[in-house]
Amino acid sequence: MLESDQVMSSVVATAASVTVEAVRPSRAEAEAAVRTLICWAGDEPSREGLLATPARVVRAYEEWFSGYRQDPASLLSRTFEEVGGYDDLVILRDIPLQSTCEHHMAAIRGAVHIAYLPNRRVVGISKLARLVEALGRRLQIQERLTAEIADTLAHVLQPHGVAVIVQASHECLSSRGVRLHGVSMLTRRLLGQFAQEPQRREILALLAG
Predict the structure, then answer these.
(1) Catalytic residue list contains 172
(2) How far is the C-alpha of 154 from the C-alpha of 152, rounded, in Å?
């Protein structure tokens, strides 16, 4: 059943990707949009220092939003069953997070802590970091990002429990509006056994410690 779900998820993701690519503007159109924004900001795109800026911005966008070209579930598809009977917590803390706020397109920077309780199979720890990167390199809000990381882990690995905590600072809060510095936001999602006491209390203490 899980294999069928993964195939269907991959088909849906591929179809969505094809649809987006079909309406995606060309590189020349994207660069023209950057020149328009430079004009709107009050500068002259033909100025020497800005001549190559549109091309640089488009290349940067390809990196910052590379997550749209990845299927997060497929990153977890290779799992391992030979774990020597290990059936306790797997925790990966302080995974660097780089994302972009979808409301103001300002930077989100922080760290993600992930824990799961295996159900016979485990996944390489680098894949957990890649999952965070793939979902982070999209236009996001922190609440949805937290849920997407946890839900993807739960769907693909089908573990006994999943816990995800994200702590991040938002430049849309520090560089504009109220301009508050040194403020971070904490979100979390607990699934399966981790949503129940006393496991809930235990896992939150471990991830926060």
Answers:
(1) yes
(2) 5
